[in-house]
Amino acid sequence: MIRRRTLLSTALAATAAIGLAACSDEGTDPEAAGGPSDGGGASDGGGDSDILAGVTVSEDLGSEPTVEFEAPLEVTAPDARIVVQGDGEAIAAGDTVIMRSAYVDASTGETLQSWWQGAPAGGIQVDPAVIGEQAASFFTTVTVGSRFAMAGWQQSQTGQSLSLIQVGDIDRKITTMRAEGEPQETSGRFPSVTLAENGAPSLDSAPEGEPPTETTRELLIEGTGDATREGDYLTMQYTGWAWDTGEKFDSSWDRGAPFSFVQGQGMVITGWDQHLLDLPVGSQVMLVIPPVDAYGEDPAQDQLGGKTLVFVVDVLDAAHRID
Asked: Which domain of life is it from (predicted)?
């Protein structure tokens, strides 16, 4: 429910996290896609093809990868391989991993987007239902610290299918799935929150009175990590309720997986884009968001149109752009 638009639909699983900023697309309804995924449905990332046999990728993990091949390279099937096996933790099914990637046009050899040149970081959830059986199987052979290469496709804004080579460095996997830090004193204006054993929040009562006319943020738990900032690839857990009824309408906790997006890119409602900045990772906040910063005033345009929304958000990770 949170996503306002998806950058790209994709057949290349690992690019499902951030897509190509230069080729943004309105994408698909997140509910129709089965929740807040960042791509456009399941896809296969591995395969038995040898598309990458003619591609040379540099192995220096301390610098931007160089990708060399004779263009145009015809990508007739998805392909994936490990370029450098890292010495970090193994990646298992269900893990959420953070990566830094470069995307190269297979038809020209041109680098279209690169973290090393200021593009956002990205990530994936290693789940066959999200990225496909072959891609999930491939990533369970990869360890943290690895560099991998994948061949596949993206769809541009005009509907053109782009053949791509992605080279990604696995930076880390997210191991903490709830806010951790110091509980904070609140204003008492809004319902108090009770946390389940796994950290999932619930409201102790329905909201009362008139809601605020501007987005309001209350810090419930203050974390100790780096502060979030514009351009971060942000990963979080969240639950949302309608102010007028107190009814829950969406929750990442219920889906069993966190939600990720690039901060400040218009991928989510304004209340999220503007009010999840400058928060230490590990924090939990309550956001009370009026229609103007949510889904607008018209219920005919969205089922949440005209509603003030209440969210409790746990900030799990903030992957920064390169400094």
From this structure: Bacteria
H or E stretch at 254: helix 252-255
Cis geometry, peptide bond prior to residue 30 (ω within 30 degrees of 0): no
Per-residue pLDDT of 85-140, as tens digits, reads 999 999 999 999 999 999 999 999 999 889 999 999 999 999 988 888 888 899 99
**Nearest partner of 173 among 142, 198, 197, 149, judged by Cα:** 142
What pLDDT band is residue 141 in, cutting at 50, 70 and 90?
A: very high
Q: How far apart are CA 44 and CA 255, in angstroms?
A: 22
Q: Is the dihedral of CA 134, 120, 233, 144 positive or negative?
A: positive
Whether residue 85 contacts residue 139, with contact meaning beta carbons closer than 8 Å, is answered with no
C-alpha torsion sign, points 50, 52, 53, 54: positive
pLDDT confidence bin for 270, thresholds 50/70/90: very high
Hey, what domains does the chain have and what are their CATH numbers? 13-173 (3.10.50.40), 182-319 (3.10.50.40)
CA-to-CA distance for 92 and 94, rounded, in angstroms? 6
Judge whether residue 6 has pLDDT over 50: no
Q: Is the dihedral of CA 74, 62, 83, 45 positive or negative?
A: negative
DSSP calls for 189-246: SS--EEE-TTS-EEESS---SPPPSS-EEEEEEE--SPBP-TT-EEEEEEEEEETTT-
Residues 168-221: tens digit of each pLDDT: 999 999 999 999 999 999 999 999 999 999 999 999 999 999 999 999 999 999
> Rounded to whole angstroms, how far apart are CA atoms 215 and 288?
6
> For residues 226 and 220, what is the distance between their CA atoms, to the nearest angstrom?
17
CA nearest neighbour of 81 among 40, 45, 132: 45
Residue 135 and residue 14 in contact, taking contact as beta carbons nearer than 8 Å: yes
Cα gap 239→286, rounded to integer Å: 10
